[in-house]
Structures are given as structure tokens and as C-alpha cells.
Amino acid sequence: MNDLQLYGWNEELFRRKQESAYKDFTHGRVMLTHKTCYEVISETGYYTCELTGNMMYGRDASEYPCTGDWVIFQSIDRDKGIILDVLPRVKTLYRLKNGAVSQQQAIASYIDKAFIVQSLDSRFNVRRIERFMLQLSGEDIQPLLVLTKTDLGFNTGEIEKAIIHLSHKIPVCYTSIESPESIDKLREFIRVGETVVFTGMSGAGKSTLINALCGQEVLRTGSISDSTGKGKHTSTRREMVLLPESGVVIDTPGVKLFGVTNNDTDTLSDILDISDYEGKCRFKDCRHVNEKGCAVIEAVENGEIDSGVYESYLKLRREAWHYAASVQEKRKKEKSLSKLVEEVKGRKLNRQVLS
Ligand SMILES: Nc1nc2c(ncn2[C@@H]2O[C@H](COP(=O)(O)OP(=O)(O)OP(=O)(O)O)[C@@H](O)[C@H]2O)c(=O)[nH]1
Ligand SMILES: [Zn+2]
């Protein structure tokens, strides 16, 4: 019997389940996704589940369950099931869907903390950290910066200087696979019943850290199995693991590009330490691009704001605005399309009445 409280099940989720039309069926948490196939852990064991036809065709693919979701399913065999409902999703890590302009993709949900993992080598990039921080702040997910591979002999001074504008907004933890003490320190950030997602670029050391926290190689060993072998998603990169005497961790696939969808510019300014200057611009609606009397630009020119930070601000804001504008445009089109359909329906009806 699995204790789902260790996976985060609580009274609030129980209440949400009672509101579902399928409340009398089994509930469980999605541990792994593979196209339209899901590994779900329930009190009675692991199930390889698929979606009902209604769920697949009645909604956009971005609304399909993601790792971390709590679902209600009907078991149809000892280890197979059909997902009937997904409990309302909260605290979700989203990203802009690859190749899309107005669609976001849920990577993991019901997340308490996110470890932003960066390796201390030539690939270290402070701009990526800012990007993740912006995205996480939109969902009230607590971030922690995990700087890995300290054994490679990085220059502490340089790194500290690069993240100085972030240091009072995000706790930092340095790790090395060669230092068990550093792994123990990281473990202290994860509490029983909590869910922590590991994000970061490919090769940052996410899977290595999770294996170290677990004390064994747990990732990519294919925890589902059935007699046909169909359920062995060994190539799937996204996986949830319950740490011994600790919380749940989710590994996410390393991506090259992580597009943001959170267009809360106030938060962006706070993260990048720009807010104090914004209030001093001559114009209230200053965009800090080329306006006269812009205190932000002035601060960049006299070196108070790092030019890299300023560029990052403009880039992230542009990206998030572009996403928001594309979503609005899409909604407008959908609205006028449904209006047109209604009009055509109305005309048909009128013709029937007249004939
Ligand atoms: N020197 C050193 N190498 C490390 C450390 N942690 C991880 N590595 C190595 O870095 C490489 C990438 O590690 P992974 O754990 O696979 O990285 P990942 O972030 O999971 O990468 P993706 O799965 O592609 O997203 C491996 O060769 C690891 O052995 C460390 O603390 N020190
Ligand atoms: Zn300005």
C-alpha cells in the first residue's frame, strides 16, 4: 500500500476530488508522461494509463495531464487504467511550447520548490537563471539556485559577481558529486510531502544530483513494466522519484531554449533590481528603451545597472509581451469565428422557419 501523503496528497486535494463527477473512482499522481500514456501511482500500486477519447479529442494537447498532476482513473486491469479526470492544476512549471507563439506547455504541476541547476563550467549563464526565476514567480514556486560541479575549480569571485543582483532573492547551494556533504546540504531543502522540480539545461547535472540524493541510480531504470514491455518508457526523460525519508523530486528534460510566458513586468523588474530606478523616469509609462529622462537608461550609462542585466530585461519583457499579444490575438480570432458560426446557424434556422 503506497502512502500518497508522501507524494503530497492532502485535504485540499481530497476536497477537489469530491467536486469531480468521478469522485468514486481511484485517484493517483502522474509520475511519468509518454505522449498519451501515463504512469500513475495510486494507493494500490502503479498503473499505466491512457486518456478517455473525450479527454483526448475534446481538448487541446497542452491540457493533457503532465507529470505531477493528480488524476482520477478507472482501473481496467491489474496495472492498466483509463484517466477520467484531472484535478485542477496549480503551481505549475510552464514554458513556451517549442515552435509555438501562443501556446504554453505544462512541464510539471503541484510544485513547491524548483531547483534551478547550473553547472560551474564554461556553460554557466546567469541569463538563464533570470529566465527561470521569472517563469517560476508567476506560479508562486519557491526557487533555489543549485550550482553544480564545484570540483571543476571554478572562480568563486567571478560567479558571485555575476549573480550579485539575484543573491538576495534566491538562496544558493553549491554542490559537487565528489562532496557527499554538499548533497546532504541540498537534501535539507526538501521536506517530507513536498515536490521539488529540477530544471536546467542539458548536462547541468540534474539526474546525477537526483541519483545522489536517492543514494542509488533511480533514473532511467524504467519503473513501469508490464508483460508486453509496452509500459517501459526508458527513453522518457521526465520522471518523478520519492526520496527516502524526504519529498518527491521531478527531473525534467534539459532544454536548449526555455521560452517564458509570464509577462508580469513588475516582477521582472524586481528580479533584476530595476524597480527602484523605474519610479524615477520622467514619464510614468516609460518603456526604458530610448525615452528622454529615463532613469533606467541613465543608470545603465553610469554603470549602476549592468548592461547585461538591462539587455536581459528588454529581451525577457519582449518575449513575454509577444506571448501575451499572440494569446490575445488567438482569442480574438476564436471569438469572431464562433460569432460567425452562430450567425450561419441563425440564418439556417430563419430559412427553415420561412420555408
Ligand atoms: N565533475 C563533475 N561532473 C558532474 C557533476 N555532476 C554531474 N556531472 C557530470 O555531468 C554530466 C551531465 O550530468 P547529468 O546528470 O546527466 O546532467 P542532466 O542535467 O541530467 O542532463 P540532461 O539529462 O541532458 O538534462 C555527466 O557526465 C555527469 O557525470 C559534478 O558534480 N562534478
Ligand atoms: Zn525609463
UniProtKB/TrEMBL annotation:
The keyword Protein transport does not apply. One of its GO terms (biological process) is ribosomal small subunit biogenesis. It comes from the Bacteria. One of several proteins that assist in the late maturation steps of the functional core of the 30S ribosomal subunit. Helps release RbfA from mature subunits. May play a role in the assembly of ribosomal proteins into the subunit. Circularly permuted GTPase that catalyzes slow GTP hydrolysis, GTPase activity is stimulated by the 30S ribosomal subunit. One of its GO terms (cellular component) is cytoplasm. Belongs to the TRAFAC class YlqF/YawG GTPase family. RsgA subfamily. Pfam families: RsgA_GTPase. It comes from Oxalobacter paraformigenes. Its EC number is 3.6.1.-. This is Small ribosomal subunit biogenesis GTPase RsgA. The keyword Nucleus does not apply. Monomer. Associates with 30S ribosomal subunit, binds 16S rRNA. It is found in: Cytoplasm. The gene is rsgA. One of its GO terms (molecular function) is GTPase activity. Residues 101-258 form the CP-type G domain. Zn(2+) binds at residues 281, 286, 288, 294.
